[in-house]
Amino acid sequence: GHTWALAAILIAGTFGSIADSILGSTVQAKYQVPGSAEILENPTSAKFPKRQAKLIAGYKQIKNNSVNFAASAIGALIVVLILDLR
User: Fold this and answer.
1) pLDDT for 2-23, tens place per residue?
2) Residue of 84, 86, 79, 83 whose CA lies nearest to 12
3) How many helices (H) and strands (E) does the chain have?
4) DSSP string spanning 58-80?
5) What tens digit of pLDDT does each residue of 59-82 get?
6) Coil, strand, or helix at residue 48?
7) Cα dihedral sign for 48, 49, 51, 56?
8) Do residues 31 and 56 lie in contact, with contact meaning Cβ atoms separated by under 8 Å?
9) What are phi and psi of 62, to 5 degrees?
10) With contact defined as beta carbons under 8 Å apart, do 78 and 12 qualify?
11) Which of the chain's termini has less CB crowding within 10 Å, N or C?
């Protein structure tokens, strides 16, 4: 009943969060302005308006919104799989 659904949601949320962390640290684009230690999610920043940041990790096509979408989709898929196994 409700306990099984709650457990499925908690498990899926946990896996979605883990997926977000893994994707964010491995494939999401990360930029750095030369001469700065700050890591940015975008190649341009209000903090450094005249300096272009360089891609230092990940893929430029994969931004934070893409990672969030993928992690949410993974969580939703896990809920469906868990409830389907029931």
Assistant:
1) 888 899 999 999 999 999 999 9
2) 79
3) 2, 3
4) SBTT--HHHHHHHHHHHHHHHHH
5) 999 999 999 999 999 999 999 998
6) strand
7) positive
8) yes
9) -105, 105
10) yes
11) N
